[in-house]
Specification:
By secondary structure, the chain is α+β, with helices and mostly antiparallel strands. The protein folds into 2 domains: about 170 residues, Thermophilic metalloprotease (M29) (Thermophilic metalloprotease-like, 3-Layer(aba) Sandwich); about 190 residues, no CATH class. Strands 5, 6, 11, 12, 13, 14, 18, 19 and 20 form a 9-stranded antiparallel beta sheet that branches. Strands 7-10-15-16-17 form a 5-stranded antiparallel beta sheet, with helices on one face. Strand 19 and strand 20 form a beta hairpin. Helix 7 packs across helix 8. It starts with a helix and ends with a strand. The protein binds zinc ion (ZN) (2 copies). The site of one zinc ion (ZN) has 4 residues, from strand 17. The site of one zinc ion has 4 residues, from strand 17.
Length: about 400
């Protein structure tokens, strides 16, 4: 086996073992771009070796999707047939693990009318509500990993040839997900422990609010609900199976109090949303609700995102990532949220994770709302971290504790 194949195998193994942590007799469902077929086949082989009952693969081809967006009649974007819903839900109810390979070309859809994309996304989010809910409440183990495609790699490294761009992106990915380490599984165990320290710092301070400030115009206060929890690294299903939802992951995150966000926040990286880029944008909040937003690029796409439903006017996630982290230190903008969000402090518009509040997994939608959690069909992360970001924690008694100084942990 050559070096590259060896690395690929290690990576595939990491996704199966540490990512979704496949169990004996369990189904594995993979969502994979057709370009990633060789890697997906490798994953499938390892999953069977580890005892998977069956591996079901949803192949997608973003170029065919684009053709459909350009040519199909409008009404087709308003339906998702039940058999397609069942192709996810059936396996979810059977306790399957779900692995997504995120590798989209960030600007492929730029000639497509954003209204069509947002209509189709909304149809999908609505039809897959129960499925998405299951994943967001960790009823099923799930994980997202990325591998290079030509379309994506050449956007990240436009100055080199296609094949060089793909190789360069492979190298960065192997480094960032610790596949270049002697024992990647062990390296991940250490990493999980480091994230735990940040979680403990935040949870033991039981903060009432966070105040963000930097030189690009962010001045934002985020209240945290009573009984909120900071989580990160490993997650657990109801049966207690540990899994890693995002590989890489560098964040610890919690939920904002839905009505407790005030001020303005300015983006620090472009956001790839449904194949369109939104860049240099900002939001202004009053009592949690977005009352104003701007964007130098992709304003239309941003407008569709914010107007998905009522809940997409509010925040559902607050995540802390030091500026001095492996992805950020690579100096690369990935135009891929999985990577960019783990290089930067970020927030998410839309639904909150129920794991971010005590006993949240056992609460109904109404109880979660009551507890201060936001609900929406959408959940979209956007990046706000800068090298000069200051975050001050405000404790229950009003005293202050520095959380971030110059973009990094202050403790
Ligand atoms: Zn996040
Ligand atoms: Zn998120």
């Amino acid at each position: 086996m050559n070096k590259k194949d060896e690395m690929l195998k290690k990576y595939a193994r990491l996704a199966v073992k540490t990512g979704v942590n496949i169990q004996k007799g369990q189904y594995l469902v993979i969502m994979s771009p057709i370009e990633c077929a060789p890697f997906t086949r490798m994953i499938s082989e390892i999953a069977y070796d580890e005892g998977a009952k069956d591996v079901i693969i949803h192949w997608n081809d973003e170029i065919s999707t684009k053709i459909k967006f350009l040519k199909a009649p409008e009404e087709i974007f308003e339906v998702m047939p039940q058999w397609q819903v069942d192709s996810y839900l059936y396996y979810a109810r059977e306790g399957a693990a779900f692995l997504s390979i995120a590798a989209s070309n960030p600007e492929l859809m730029k000639d497509v009318n954003p209204a069509r994309i947002s209509k189709s996304q909304k149809t999908r989010q609505l039809a897959l509500k129960e499925f998405n809910q299951r994943l967001m409440t960790n009823k099923n183990a799930w994980s997202i990993v990325s591998i290079p495609t030509v379309g994506w790699s050449t956007k990240v490294f436009p100055e080199v040839s296609e094949s060089e761009a793909v190789e360069k992106l492979w190298d960065s990915i192997f480094n960032i997900v610790r596949v270049d380490k002697e024992d990647p599984v062990k390296a991940w165990d250490e990493h999980k422990n480091n994230l735990k320290k940040s979680m403990e710092f935040l949870n033991s301070n039981n903060l009432k609010a966070l105040h963000y400030k930097n030189s690009i115009g962010t001045d934002l206060t985020i209240e945290l609900p009573e009984n909120h929890l900071w989580v990160g690294g490993a997650e657990y299903t109801a049966e207690g199976v540990e899994f890693i939802a995002n590989m890489p992951t560098e964040e610890v995150f919690s939920m904002p109090k839905k009505t407790g966000v005030n001020g303005t926040v300015v983006s620090s990286k472009p956001l790839n949303y449904g194949g369109n880029l939104i860049d240099n944008f900002s939001f202004t909040f009053k009592q949690g609700r977005i009352v104003d937003f701007k964007a130098e690029k992709g304003l239309d796409t941003l407008k569709h995102l914010v107007e998905t439903d009522e809940g997409s006017h509010y925040l559902g996630e607050v995540a802390l990532v030091p500026y001095d982290s492996p992805i950020s230190n690579s100096g690369i903008i990935f135009f891929n949220t999985l990577y960019d969000e783990n290089a930067s402090c970020h927030l998410a518009i839309g639904k909150a994770y129920s794991s971010c509040i005590k006993n949240g997994e056992n609460m109904s939608e109404e109880e979660l709302e009551e507890a201060g959690a936001n609900n929406s069909l959408a959940h979209v992360d956007f990046m706000i971290g800068t090298p000069d970001l200051e975050i001050t924690g405000i404790k229950q008694d009003g005293s202050k504790v520095p959380v971030f100084k110059n973009g990094n942990w202050a403790y």
